[in-house]
Amino acid sequence: MHALRGKEFIEYDNPFDVGMTGLLGFASGYKAIKESDALLMLGTDFPYQQFYPDNAKIVQVDIRGRNLGRRAPIDLGLLGTVGDTLAALQPLLHQKTQREHLDRSLNHYRKTRKRLDELAVNDRDRTPIRPEYVAGSVNRLAADDAVFTVDVGSPVVWAARYLSMNGRRRLIGSFNHGTMANALPHAIGAQTAFRDRQVIALAGDGGLTMLFGELVTLIQNRLPVKVIVFNNSSLNFVELEMKAAGIVNFGTDLHNPDFAAVAQAMGVFGRRVEHPADLERAVADAFAYDGPAVVDVVTARQELSIPPAITVEQAKGFSLYAIRTILAGRADELLDLVTTNVARRILD
């Protein structure tokens, strides 16, 4: 089990991997922790209390003493590095043969992973394009040692769920502070440090527009960063939070330019993608281009990045959002939400 910042280090060669937990994770990781008897937290300041087990013994190891017991009551706190602590702990452990919980968790993970991967496809050429398909395509076409930087918001959700790590790839983002518009500046730093590696920025349209002028930095410093834009014409994750709180979307619309055309005017490779059939070719061409590139992908605004567990308050919030949206005369928005997340999948 891992949180987001552990994804690139332990996910790829762990035969007991059951997925991520937390707001960015998915059902199998949540279920594995909730059903556990003991939880060993290694160097993590995991903040989401609703994802902790209810009755398990919790042991936390951290070099930062202030983090011990900060997020949830713990039965034992150990101050020290993870490496030193595990080295001392390992001789004291005795292997057990009971595998019911492990096998149940692994089986649930396989089913969950299959359902997630079924969304990362060309949805019969229907538009707008699923963001899962964008992330999945980037993952397949990227280099084995690519450095990915991701904007806070929905791009980090798709990265967490669809980018495959292998011990050579890196995943960088503002995972502690949640800073908007971080993908492009992080990519500039990564490409400056690693001139010979492929650096890919997964940018939201809201994030990119905040620092759009930094494309000039790519030209000025001859940095061949590839920018993939999830263009859903909204502050997408903010809208999701508003829905969960029962608030009708307000102030989240983005009236975007054609990012690819603007990039071309600045001397950067630009390609706009509005149809799923054109996506992989556009991404492949951008990756093959000897210089900075922007791929502007028009994605589904109402695709829900649903967390693995929904609280009663969130469910009430969504119901209240639906009622208020209809009363506000915006039933077409609600219909789009249902069509994107329910009808398309039932019809499939």
Strand content: 5-15%
Shape: globular
Tell me what the CATH architecture of the largest domain is.
Answer: 3-Layer(aba) Sandwich
Q: What sequence of helices (H) and strands (E) makes up the elements?
A: HHEEEHHHEHEHEHHEHHEHEHH
- Chain-averaged pLDDT: 89
Total domains, how many?
Answer: 2
Summarize the helices and strands and which ones pair or pack:
Layout: H1 7-10, H2 27-34, E1 38-42, E2 57-62, E3 76-79, H3 82-89, H4 100-119, H5 131-141, E4 147-150, H6 154-162, E5 170-173, H7 183-193, E6 199-204, H8 205-210, H9 215-220, E7 226-231, H10 236-244, H11 259-265, E8 269-273, H12 279-288, E9 293-298, H13 312-327, H14 331-347
Parallel strand pairs: 1-2, 2-3, 4-5, 4-6, 6-7, 7-9, 8-9
Helix pairs in contact: 2-4, 5-6, 5-12, 13-14
Characterise the protein shown here:
This protein has 348 residues and is α/β, with parallel strands linked by helices. The chain folds into two domains: 4-104, Rossmann fold, CATH 3.40.50; 120-298, Rossmann fold (3-Layer(aba) Sandwich), CATH 3.40.50.970. The protein has 14 helices and nine strands. It has helices spanning 7-10, 27-34, 82-89, 100-119, 131-141, 154-162, 183-193, 205-210, 215-220, 236-244, 259-265, 279-288, 312-327, 331-347; strands spanning 38-42, 57-62, 76-79, 147-150, 170-173, 199-204, 226-231, 269-273, 293-298. The strands form two sheets. A six-stranded parallel sheet has the order 5-4-6-7-9-8, with helices on both faces. A three-stranded parallel sheet has the order 1-2-3, with no helix packed on it. Strand 4 (147-150), helix 6 and strand 5 (170-173) form a beta-alpha-beta unit. The longest helix is centred in the first third of the chain and has 20 residues, at 100-119. It is globular and about 65 Å long. The model has no long low-confidence stretch (mean pLDDT 89). One of its GO terms (molecular function) is catalytic activity. Pfam families: TPP_enzyme_C, TPP_enzyme_M.
